Amino acid sequence: MSTQDDAEMFARLRTVWSEVDPVPAALIDRMVAAVAADGLNREYALLTLVEGQLGSVRGDADALTLQFSDGSTSILLHVTRTSSGRRRVDGWVDTAAAEIVLTQGETTRTTSPEETGRFVFDEVPPGLTRVRLTTKIGGEPRTLATPQFEL
Model pTM? Predict the structure, then answer.
């Protein structure tokens, strides 16, 4: 077989696989979330190794990544500072969620995640925050509420 024959055979094989077993639409976002969550353990270990030098390692421009789970549902939050001094919260859930609610004191913001589980809250003021999601798995809605955390 020549190199051209091999290339044609591999092209046909790719076509068959994409028709028979296509890549799931949510796979890329879920993999990004899984990789980000996996890195949290290493980041925590690194931070505990440089305990006395955290000020020189971390700055105000850094992002915050948080993960919460109740054993069957997980939520990953990535928080960054915007140019206005507020926060942008990018999130991912690993299950079908009907509603995501971000609460700060008496103020609430509500959104619905995309089909991939991704959601965003823009221009969130700093302060104590809690996120609650309601899943739509099965017949009864279930709720996962995070503890309060500081943005």
Answer: 0.58
